[in-house]
Amino acid sequence: MQKSKFKIKVKGDKVIWMVFLLLIIISAMEVYSTIGKTVYERQGGSPIMMFAKHIFILFLGTCVMYAVHHIKYTYFSRFAKIGLYVSFILLTLTLILGSVGDKAAARWLTIPLIGQFQPSEIVKIILIIYVARVLALYQDNIKSMEVFKKLMIPICIICVLIFPENFSTATILFLICFFMMYIGRINNKYLILIVIVGIIAVISVFAILKANPDLLSRGGTWVNRIEEYLSDDKTAITQSNQAEMAIATGGFFGKFLGHTTQARFLSESHNDFIYAIIIEEGGMLLGIVIIALYLILLYRGIQVARRSKGYFGAFCAIGLIIMIVFQAMINMFVATGITPVTGQTLPFVSYGGTSFLFSCIALGIVLSISASANKDQAKEKLEKDITEEDSVDLTSEENKSKEENQSENNIETKEQNN
User: Fold this and answer.
1) For residues 329 and 341, what is the distance between their CA atoms, to the nearest angstrom?
2) Which of 57, 294, 308, 345 is disulfide-compatible with 313, CB 3.0–4.6 A?
3) For the residues of 177-234, what is the DSSP string, one character each?
4) Is residue 71 one of the residues assigned to a domain?
């Protein structure tokens, strides 16, 4: 009987794989604990179906990540420029045809037989890959104005297209690209100019929207969130205050899984505010564990970037891992009241399809870079071992030849003496 040749082979950084698996296990437990309110309000049925959908998404995302990490990461560089044009089209279509949901945000496109997806999630990955590609290709001329324009024009266009309906995503993506340009050695005077212009732009936009909140569909929401954050009124019944209450009642060890009370009041307890429920049920202990897992992910991503042989792999790994960790940090900052409400999910933990799947793709690319670096290191080690073995064999043969010659000389000397 012939055995099946199919074999699951996991490559890349094993620590990253372990962190990912721990996060999705926590996700399964916490989403099940928090989806009751959402099911009651939107479906009026059992949470089992919604939970089953989440488990399927976790499984699908894991399969996608596994498939992506087997693709050589340099292939993604080849399609970065085409992907950029596709991004422009997708984001433009989203603004024009985007379906307006409960949050009145045209962030979604509907594809027949597939359903809704959020184009900004895939655009984030494409833009980071493009920036990594340009930084890698033009390292010899990296300080020039030409290279700076090659980067800033597409970055600004994409962020401007995302901005009207998703201010937080546009801001986060711009900051990630700015950091990549900084480590890519773009001229400091250009980076300082970006900071000055960025600060002026943010202040100006807030002032304009405060005076005329209806100028953008989300303008009033942004102004209200910032004013709510600045007011610091703890008696108001707001999502931020409910999240802080969940954290405050969790203590160090928490109320244990399934014993949340604040999930009944938080409208996005399974999504944007899931970190607050994690602390309520698992206490500060589990909250610290979650932070530690993302910090480990960041550290291992930096190590992958350092081990990468080429510039593209290094820049791509650092950009994608920062995208994931920075989004996690913003989500946790919102839940703990450090920053205004943004609507960012907790990567690999929050309920959601598009965000989870594309986060898996991003992490899959990082693992592909890691696998390639490991392969190169293994090849170098093998070549070194072969060289050393050849050297040892050669030395051994030389010594043996010398011994044989010395033996022959001794015999000749003895014969001459006789």
Assistant:
1) 13
2) 308
3) HHHHHHHTT--HHHHHHHHHHHHHHHHHHHHHHHH-GGGSTTHHHHHHHHHHHHH--T
4) yes
Q: Does any domain span residue 415? A: no
Q: Which two tokens stand for residue 157?
A: 């266009």
* Domain extent for 108: 14-370
Neighbours of 81 (CB within 10 A): 15
Does residue 380 lie within any of the structural domains?
no
| H-run or E-run covering 109 | strand 109-111
Provide the token pair at 322: 């920062």
Closest C-alpha to 61, from 324, 298, 409, 378:
324
Q: What pLDDT, on a 0 to 100 scale, did the predictor assign at position 99?
A: 47
Q: Where are the alpha helices (DSSP H) in 9-100?
A: 14-34, 36-42, 47-68, 74-78, 80-97
Tokens of residue 263, six digits = 């999930």
C-alpha–C-alpha distance, residues 373 and 396, integer Å: 34
Number of Cβ within 10 Å of residue 177's Cβ equals 27
26, 278 Cβ separation under 8 angstroms: yes
Q: How far apart are CA 126 and CA 107, in angstroms?
A: 17
Cα torsion at 54, 55, 56, 62 (round to 10°)? Answer: 110
| Angstrom distance (rounded) from CA 223 to CA 230 | 11
Token couple for 178 = 């700015």
Rounded Cα gap, residues 313 and 66, in angstroms? 18
Specify which residues 117 forms β-bridges with.
Answer: 109
Q: Is residue 165 part of a domain?
A: yes
Residue type, 32: Y
Residues 405, 172: Cα–Cα separation, whole Å: 75
Q: Could you give the number of structural domains in the chain? A: 1
Strand partners, 110: 116
**Residues 219-236: what's their mean pLDDT?**
73
Please answer whether residues 15 and 300 qualify as being in contact, where contact means their C-beta atoms are separated by less than 8 angstroms: yes
Chain segment 80-101, per-residue pLDDT in tens: 889 999 999 888 888 877 544 4
Instruction: State pLDDT tens for residues 247-265.
Output: 888 888 888 887 777 777 7
Whole-model pTM over 0.90: no
CA dist., res. 47 & res. 31, Å (int): 10
Query: What are 23's two structure tokens?
Result: 């996060």
**Rounded Cα distance, 298 and 326, in Å:** 9
Q: By CB neighbour count within 10 A (0-12 exposed, 13-18 middle, 19+ buried), where does 29 fall?
A: middle
